[in-house]
Protein backbone atom coordinates (compact mmCIF):
# COMPACT_ATOMS: atom_id res chain seq x y z
CA UNK A 1 0.00 0.00 0.00
CA UNK A 2 1.38 3.49 -0.81
CA UNK A 3 2.98 5.58 1.92
CA UNK A 4 3.19 2.61 4.27
CA UNK A 5 5.55 2.55 7.23
CA UNK A 6 6.59 0.37 10.15
CA UNK A 7 8.45 1.26 13.34
CA UNK A 8 9.56 -1.14 16.07
CA UNK A 9 11.34 -0.57 19.36
CA UNK A 10 13.47 -3.63 18.59
CA UNK A 11 15.30 -1.47 16.03
CA UNK A 12 16.96 0.70 18.70
CA UNK A 13 18.98 0.13 21.84
CA UNK A 14 17.34 -0.17 25.24
CA UNK A 15 18.74 3.23 26.25
CA UNK A 16 17.11 4.96 23.25
CA UNK A 17 13.89 2.99 23.28
CA UNK A 18 11.60 5.19 25.39
CA UNK A 19 12.34 8.45 23.57
CA UNK A 20 12.19 6.74 20.18
CA UNK A 21 8.84 5.15 20.98
CA UNK A 22 7.23 8.32 22.30
CA UNK A 23 8.31 10.27 19.22
CA UNK A 24 7.01 7.56 16.88
CA UNK A 25 3.60 7.37 18.57
CA UNK A 26 3.16 11.15 18.50
CA UNK A 27 4.28 11.39 14.87
CA UNK A 28 1.94 8.68 13.61
CA UNK A 29 -1.13 9.43 15.76
CA UNK A 30 -1.51 12.77 17.56
CA UNK A 31 0.74 14.58 20.08
CA UNK A 32 0.09 13.17 23.55
CA UNK A 33 1.76 11.82 26.69
CA UNK A 34 2.95 8.25 26.14
CA UNK A 35 3.58 6.37 29.38
CA UNK A 36 4.76 2.76 29.29
CA UNK A 37 3.72 1.08 32.54
CA UNK A 38 6.46 -0.95 34.24
CA UNK A 39 8.32 -3.86 32.69
CA UNK A 40 10.41 -3.85 29.53
CA UNK A 41 9.00 -1.60 26.81
CA UNK A 42 8.16 -3.27 23.52
CA UNK A 43 6.14 -1.61 20.80
CA UNK A 44 5.41 -1.68 17.09
CA UNK A 45 3.35 0.60 14.85
CA UNK A 46 2.59 -0.13 11.20
CA UNK A 47 0.31 1.82 8.94
CA UNK A 48 -0.42 3.67 5.74
CA UNK A 49 -2.52 6.44 4.22
CA UNK A 50 -5.72 5.87 2.29
CA UNK A 51 -6.36 9.15 0.50
CA UNK A 52 -6.55 11.47 3.54
CA UNK A 53 -7.32 8.77 6.11
CA UNK A 54 -4.59 7.29 8.29
CA UNK A 55 -4.73 3.59 9.12
CA UNK A 56 -2.63 2.30 11.98
CA UNK A 57 -2.04 -0.95 13.86
CA UNK A 58 -0.24 -0.57 17.17
CA UNK A 59 0.93 -3.42 19.40
CA UNK A 60 2.81 -2.88 22.67
CA UNK A 61 3.23 -3.67 26.33
CA UNK A 62 0.99 -2.05 28.96
CA UNK A 63 0.54 1.71 28.44
CA UNK A 64 -1.24 4.89 29.39
CA UNK A 65 -1.86 7.41 26.60
CA UNK A 66 -3.19 10.86 27.49
CA UNK A 67 -3.92 13.79 25.23
CA UNK A 68 -3.94 16.78 27.52
CA UNK A 69 -5.33 20.27 26.98
CA UNK A 70 -1.83 21.59 26.33
CA UNK A 71 -1.32 18.91 23.66
CA UNK A 72 -4.52 20.04 21.92
CA UNK A 73 -3.44 23.68 22.09
CA UNK A 74 -0.03 22.88 20.62
CA UNK A 75 -1.52 21.32 17.51
CA UNK A 76 -4.74 19.66 16.43
CA UNK A 77 -5.01 17.62 13.21
CA UNK A 78 -8.80 17.62 13.73
CA UNK A 79 -9.32 13.91 13.19
CA UNK A 80 -11.92 11.51 14.45
CA UNK A 81 -10.20 8.34 15.57
CA UNK A 82 -11.89 4.95 15.47
CA UNK A 83 -10.21 2.37 17.68
CA UNK A 84 -10.85 -1.37 17.45
CA UNK A 85 -9.37 -3.67 20.09
CA UNK A 86 -7.67 -6.69 18.55
CA UNK A 87 -5.96 -7.97 21.71
CA UNK A 88 -6.06 -7.03 25.39
CA UNK A 89 -8.28 -4.91 27.61
CA UNK A 90 -8.44 -1.12 27.78
CA UNK A 91 -10.34 1.87 29.14
CA UNK A 92 -11.08 4.97 27.07
CA UNK A 93 -12.09 8.28 28.68
CA UNK A 94 -13.38 11.35 26.86
CA UNK A 95 -16.17 13.91 27.22
CA UNK A 96 -17.11 12.72 30.71
CA UNK A 97 -17.59 9.09 29.69
CA UNK A 98 -15.53 5.94 30.22
CA UNK A 99 -15.69 2.92 27.91
CA UNK A 100 -14.40 -0.47 29.07
CA UNK A 101 -13.02 -2.18 25.96
CA UNK A 102 -12.44 -5.87 25.21
CA UNK A 103 -11.30 -7.65 22.03
CA UNK A 104 -13.73 -6.94 19.21
CA UNK A 105 -14.98 -3.65 20.68
CA UNK A 106 -14.88 -0.37 18.73
CA UNK A 107 -14.92 3.15 20.12
CA UNK A 108 -14.56 6.71 18.82
CA UNK A 109 -12.48 9.59 20.15
CA UNK A 110 -11.77 13.11 18.94
CA UNK A 111 -8.35 14.75 18.63
CA UNK A 112 -9.81 18.18 19.42
CA UNK A 113 -10.45 17.41 23.09
CA UNK A 114 -8.49 15.67 25.85
CA UNK A 115 -8.75 11.91 26.12
CA UNK A 116 -7.09 9.09 28.02
CA UNK A 117 -6.53 5.43 27.14
CA UNK A 118 -5.12 2.88 29.57
CA UNK A 119 -4.48 -0.78 28.84
CA UNK A 120 -4.38 -3.53 31.46
CA UNK A 121 -1.50 -5.39 29.81
CA UNK A 122 -0.15 -6.18 26.33
CA UNK A 123 -2.50 -4.94 23.62
CA UNK A 124 -3.09 -4.49 19.92
CA UNK A 125 -5.34 -1.80 18.43
CA UNK A 126 -6.37 -1.06 14.86
CA UNK A 127 -7.04 2.68 14.51
CA UNK A 128 -8.40 4.85 11.72
CA UNK A 129 -7.74 8.62 11.70
CA UNK A 130 -10.33 10.39 9.54
CA UNK A 131 -10.32 14.18 8.96
CA UNK A 132 -13.48 15.49 10.62
CA UNK A 133 -14.15 17.89 7.75
CA UNK A 134 -14.99 14.84 5.60
CA UNK A 135 -17.85 13.91 7.92
CA UNK A 136 -21.27 15.49 7.27
CA UNK A 137 -21.86 15.67 11.05
CA UNK A 138 -21.74 18.53 13.52
CA UNK A 139 -19.22 18.80 16.34
CA UNK A 140 -22.16 18.85 18.75
CA UNK A 141 -23.15 15.40 17.55
CA UNK A 142 -19.59 14.04 17.60
CA UNK A 143 -19.26 14.99 21.28
CA UNK A 144 -22.14 12.64 22.12
CA UNK A 145 -20.58 9.65 20.32
CA UNK A 146 -17.11 9.43 21.85
CA UNK A 147 -15.99 6.87 24.47
CA UNK A 148 -18.85 4.45 23.88
CA UNK A 149 -18.02 0.77 23.40
CA UNK A 150 -19.70 -0.92 20.44
CA UNK A 151 -19.23 -4.46 19.15
CA UNK A 152 -17.66 -5.37 15.82
CA UNK A 153 -19.31 -8.78 15.92
CA UNK A 154 -22.17 -7.93 13.58
CA UNK A 155 -24.16 -5.18 11.89
CA UNK A 156 -22.48 -1.95 10.84
CA UNK A 157 -19.82 -2.46 13.52
CA UNK A 158 -18.92 -5.78 11.94
CA UNK A 159 -18.64 -4.26 8.47
CA UNK A 160 -16.60 -1.32 9.76
CA UNK A 161 -14.27 -3.57 11.74
CA UNK A 162 -13.69 -5.91 8.80
CA UNK A 163 -12.92 -3.04 6.43
CA UNK A 164 -10.56 -1.34 8.90
CA UNK A 165 -8.73 -4.61 9.50
CA UNK A 166 -8.40 -5.31 5.77
CA UNK A 167 -7.11 -1.83 5.04
CA UNK A 168 -4.69 -1.77 7.98
CA UNK A 169 -3.14 -5.09 6.96
CA UNK A 170 -3.02 -4.24 3.25
CA UNK A 171 -5.48 -6.94 2.19
CA UNK A 172 -7.70 -4.27 0.63
CA UNK A 173 -4.95 -2.00 -0.65
CA UNK A 174 -5.36 0.38 -3.57
CA UNK A 175 -2.53 2.19 -5.37
CA UNK A 176 -4.73 4.27 -7.70
CA UNK A 177 -5.81 7.60 -6.14
CA UNK A 178 -9.35 7.18 -7.45
CA UNK A 179 -9.63 3.75 -5.84
CA UNK A 180 -8.27 5.15 -2.59
CA UNK A 181 -10.87 7.91 -2.67
CA UNK A 182 -13.64 5.38 -3.29
CA UNK A 183 -12.49 3.29 -0.32
CA UNK A 184 -12.30 6.40 1.83
CA UNK A 185 -15.91 7.19 0.83
CA UNK A 186 -16.87 3.73 2.03
CA UNK A 187 -15.17 4.39 5.38
CA UNK A 188 -16.90 7.75 5.76
CA UNK A 189 -20.29 6.19 5.04
CA UNK A 190 -19.63 3.42 7.56
CA UNK A 191 -18.48 5.92 10.19
CA UNK A 192 -21.74 7.84 9.77
CA UNK A 193 -23.84 4.68 9.93
CA UNK A 194 -21.86 3.44 12.94
CA UNK A 195 -22.45 6.70 14.78
CA UNK A 196 -26.18 6.76 14.03
CA UNK A 197 -26.94 4.42 16.94
CA UNK A 198 -30.64 4.60 16.13
CA UNK A 199 -30.72 8.38 16.64
CA UNK A 200 -29.78 9.74 13.24
CA UNK A 201 -32.04 9.55 10.26
CA UNK A 202 -31.06 7.38 7.35
CA UNK A 203 -29.62 3.91 7.08
CA UNK A 204 -26.36 2.27 5.96
CA UNK A 205 -25.65 3.11 2.32
CA UNK A 206 -27.17 0.84 -0.28
CA UNK A 207 -25.24 -0.91 -2.99
CA UNK A 208 -26.58 1.55 -5.56
CA UNK A 209 -25.55 4.53 -3.45
CA UNK A 210 -22.06 3.10 -3.11
CA UNK A 211 -21.85 2.54 -6.86
CA UNK A 212 -23.01 6.08 -7.53
CA UNK A 213 -20.40 7.54 -5.19
CA UNK A 214 -17.68 5.43 -6.77
CA UNK A 215 -18.70 6.60 -10.27
CA UNK A 216 -18.68 10.21 -9.08
CA UNK A 217 -15.19 9.80 -7.60
CA UNK A 218 -13.96 8.47 -10.93
CA UNK A 219 -15.45 11.38 -12.93
CA UNK A 220 -15.06 14.43 -10.68
CA UNK A 221 -12.75 16.05 -13.22
CA UNK A 222 -15.51 16.19 -15.84
CA UNK A 223 -17.26 19.57 -15.47
CA UNK A 224 -20.20 18.23 -17.48
CA UNK A 225 -20.88 15.37 -15.07
CA UNK A 226 -24.64 15.31 -14.45
CA UNK A 227 -27.08 13.34 -12.28
CA UNK A 228 -28.37 11.72 -15.46
CA UNK A 229 -24.86 10.45 -16.28
CA UNK A 230 -24.55 8.98 -12.80
CA UNK A 231 -27.96 7.30 -12.92
CA UNK A 232 -27.27 5.81 -16.35
CA UNK A 233 -23.89 4.47 -15.23
CA UNK A 234 -25.51 2.75 -12.22
CA UNK A 235 -28.46 1.38 -14.20
CA UNK A 236 -31.06 3.20 -12.09
CA UNK A 237 -33.62 5.92 -12.75
CA UNK A 238 -32.84 9.57 -12.15
CA UNK A 239 -35.64 9.88 -9.58
CA UNK A 240 -34.31 6.85 -7.66
CA UNK A 241 -30.81 8.37 -7.67
CA UNK A 242 -32.16 11.56 -6.11
CA UNK A 243 -34.02 9.55 -3.46
CA UNK A 244 -30.85 7.61 -2.58
CA UNK A 245 -28.89 10.80 -1.93
CA UNK A 246 -31.81 12.40 -0.10
CA UNK A 247 -31.85 9.42 2.27
CA UNK A 248 -28.15 10.13 2.87
CA UNK A 249 -28.97 13.73 3.78
CA UNK A 250 -27.60 15.47 0.66
CA UNK A 251 -28.51 16.32 -2.92
CA UNK A 252 -26.65 14.78 -5.84
CA UNK A 253 -25.33 18.16 -6.94
CA UNK A 254 -24.37 19.06 -3.37
CA UNK A 255 -22.45 15.81 -2.95
CA UNK A 256 -20.55 16.29 -6.24
CA UNK A 257 -19.70 19.88 -5.32
CA UNK A 258 -18.46 18.84 -1.85
CA UNK A 259 -16.21 16.11 -3.27
CA UNK A 260 -14.72 18.50 -5.83
CA UNK A 261 -13.99 21.09 -3.17
CA UNK A 262 -12.47 18.51 -0.84
CA UNK A 263 -10.09 17.31 -3.58
CA UNK A 264 -9.18 20.88 -4.50
CA UNK A 265 -8.50 21.72 -0.84
CA UNK A 266 -6.24 18.68 -0.53
CA UNK A 267 -4.28 19.54 -3.67
CA UNK A 268 -3.93 23.22 -2.82
CA UNK A 269 -2.48 22.39 0.58
CA UNK A 270 -0.24 19.48 -0.45
CA UNK A 271 0.74 19.92 -4.13
CA UNK A 272 3.79 21.87 -5.38
CA UNK A 273 3.45 25.51 -4.39
CA UNK A 274 4.01 26.78 -7.96
CA UNK A 275 1.02 24.89 -9.38
CA UNK A 276 -1.62 27.36 -10.57
CA UNK A 277 -4.87 27.49 -8.61
CA UNK A 278 -6.86 27.25 -11.86
CA UNK A 279 -4.97 24.07 -12.74
CA UNK A 280 -6.15 22.53 -9.47
CA UNK A 281 -9.76 23.69 -9.83
CA UNK A 282 -9.95 22.51 -13.44
CA UNK A 283 -8.56 19.13 -12.43
CA UNK A 284 -11.60 18.70 -10.20
CA UNK A 285 -14.26 19.91 -12.61
CA UNK A 286 -14.59 23.62 -11.68
CA UNK A 287 -12.67 25.42 -14.45
CA UNK A 288 -14.11 28.95 -14.01
CA UNK A 289 -11.83 30.81 -11.51
CA UNK A 290 -14.38 33.23 -10.04
CA UNK A 291 -16.97 30.48 -9.56
CA UNK A 292 -14.40 28.23 -7.91
CA UNK A 293 -13.25 31.00 -5.58
CA UNK A 294 -16.83 31.72 -4.46
CA UNK A 295 -17.57 28.06 -3.80
CA UNK A 296 -14.27 27.48 -2.00
CA UNK A 297 -14.65 30.49 0.29
CA UNK A 298 -18.24 29.56 1.05
CA UNK A 299 -17.16 26.07 2.10
CA UNK A 300 -13.86 26.68 3.91
CA UNK A 301 -14.19 30.35 4.97
CA UNK A 302 -10.98 31.25 3.16
CA UNK A 303 -9.99 31.86 -0.43
CA UNK A 304 -7.99 29.26 -2.37
CA UNK A 305 -4.97 31.56 -2.14
CA UNK A 306 -5.33 31.88 1.62
CA UNK A 307 -5.53 28.10 1.99
CA UNK A 308 -2.36 27.71 -0.05
CA UNK A 309 -0.53 30.40 1.91
CA UNK A 310 -1.50 28.79 5.21
CA UNK A 311 -0.17 25.45 3.97
CA UNK A 312 3.03 27.14 2.75
CA UNK A 313 3.59 28.61 6.21
CA UNK A 314 3.04 25.23 7.86
CA UNK A 315 5.49 23.51 5.53
CA UNK A 316 8.18 26.18 5.99
CA UNK A 317 7.89 25.96 9.78
CA UNK A 318 8.65 22.24 9.87
UniProtKB/TrEMBL annotation:
GO terms for molecular function: DNA-binding transcription factor activity; sequence-specific DNA binding. It comes from the Bacteria. It holds the Pfam family AraC_binding_2. Keywords: DNA-binding, Transcription, Transcription regulation. Residues 210-310 form the HTH araC/xylS-type domain. This is AraC-like DNA-binding protein. It comes from Nocardioides panzhihuensis.
